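User: I'll paste a sequence; please echo it back and then give the predicted structure.

Assistant: Echoing your sequence first, then the prediction.
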Amino acid sequence: MQKPDSLIFDMDGTLWDAVDTYTETWNETLRQKGINKKVDRDQLASMVGWEGKKVVATLLPEFNDEERQDIYSSVVEMRHRLLPELGGKLYEGVKEGLAQLATQYQLFILSNCGKGIIKVFIDWAGINEYITDEMAYGVNLMPKNHNIKLLTEKHQLKNPVYIGDTEGDGAQSRLANVPFVFVSYGFGQTEDYDLKFDDFRSFTDYFMKLS
């Protein structure tokens, strides 16, 4: 692979696992709204990387679109409250790796999460100084391929790559016409990738040595 000028990271399943906290935000929201339903970790883990509209439609098929949007907005609001306190599990080597990679690349985070959630993650993880910019699905309700192109145009990136953990991440990378790097320790599986790594340290080592 030609050395990229920028690395665009997926968040959930690539940089951290916050599914337990996400589960809590769903269940607390449903409880507060008087909805007699519970979500479990396995359900949400299977949906990591999905756009919010698809997640809420799958979890709450008995509600109409307007009701689902209201519930999902409340879930995102709950995440803003609980994530700074409960956080998640940062994958081994991520913080140290980002610090190294930032010396050679512009680093970005792009996720199908709600508006503002990436910034909550960045603050929680203490990685502000390493991240050039971020983009979330909740900002414009557009798919990843569209938002990859937005970041590329905004920052005049010449050779970006996208790093993610699901088949959907790979498909969106192809639509955006950027190489896809698959990390196998996350939530998904795919055989469609340009490079594959089983841990963040080996990912970091490879890109630090790339010339």
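The chain has ten helices and eight strands. The chain has two domains: 6-17+90-209, 19-86.
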